[in-house]
Specification:
single chain; alpha/beta; four-stranded parallel β-sheet; three-stranded antiparallel β-sheet; 3 helices; 7 strands; Peptidase C14, caspase domain-containing protein
Length: 156
Amino acid sequence: MHALLIGINDYPALNKLDDAVADVHLVENFLVATMGVPNDVIHIRTLLNEGATRDKIISGLKKLKTDETIKKGDPILIFYAGHGSTLPKPPEWVATSSEIQCLVAYDGGYDDEEEKWVKGVIPDVTLAYLLDELAEEKGDNITVILDCCYSGSGFR
């Protein structure tokens, strides 16, 4: 098994969370103690707080796709604990509602005057694209757990 575990408590521009990082550690302990996953960076990659920027999360997902130690059909777990939010749907995007949902990375920022997210978000369609690419390369033995608000369309 391979895992990418992401937890963000200490957002510089948003309300801090209490248990996201602790939840990552609990999942990591479960994988090692119960599931027998080796506790190394080859099998379990962890992005916490400032290490979980938008670029680093996307890079972590892409690395799962290109990692030669992950064979087609190997189980992959992706766990995210942090803020989630919504965005107005860009006019050119196809969606069933006027809003899309997104994960908010450590570097997420909201402009109150403009009333919009200005950085650090991963829209649901981006996440779905990255997961599709991963599944095409490594197979569909992928479990994704999103412990955040507005996670319902994460697999659009």
